[in-house]
Design a protein that fits this description.
Elements (H helix, E strand, L loop, with lengths): L2 H28 L26 H11 L36 H4 L7 H9 L1 H4 L13 H11 L4
Helix pairs in contact: 2-6, 4-6
């Protein structure tokens, strides 16, 4: 075996290892171990006490007709269909529409349909009232919810 060639190979491996170690050491001193955390953005979206933005009645009517009219009616004389009539819903006790059978979870909530309750309901009905029969997934956009709520207030 040629020891000179083996020594040269070992020397190359030693130099490469020393270079890598020096690079790692230098990098760890220059670059911090942890990256800075993501900035925290504070919104009122999760705060149920936060006021809703001002809603646009016309946009709310258009959105409700496109989204809610499949299962709900909006006139005082209309009969309930898959869902109860939404005429006069604002201020009505939750889960209490004469002639309509609500889920047990919704009937047990208590309270009245106001801005905060309607906002939470429209955001995610299944979270607001687990076991609800309403198949609607919800509106993630707070402005769209505010528009529908502003329109619902006019149905009296």
């Amino acid at each position: 075996m040629n020891f000179a060639a083996a020594n040269r190979g070992a020397f190359v491996i030693l130099v490469v290892a020393a270079t890598m170690g020096a690079s790692w050491l230098t990098g760890s001193m220059v670059i911090p171990d942890r990256l800075p955390g993501r900035p925290v953005i504070v919104t009122t979206e999760g705060d149920p006490a936060a006021p809703l933005p001002a809603g646009n009645v016309e946009n709310g009517a258009a959105l409700a007709n496109a989204t809610c009219s499949r299962c709900h009616s909006f006139t005082p004389s209309a009969q309930d269909s898959a869902g109860p009539s939404l005429f006069g819903v604002y201020g009505r006790p939750i889960g209490r529409q004469p002639g309509y059978t609500y889920s047990n979870g919704l009937m047990s909530l208590g309270g009245q349909w106001d801005d905060a309750h309607l906002n939470a309901w429209l955001r995610n009905p299944a979270t607001f009232s687990p076991g609800t029969r309403m198949s609607f997934r919800g509106l993630p956009d707070v402005a769209e919810r505010a528009n529908i709520i502003a329109w619902l207030k006019t149905l009296h």
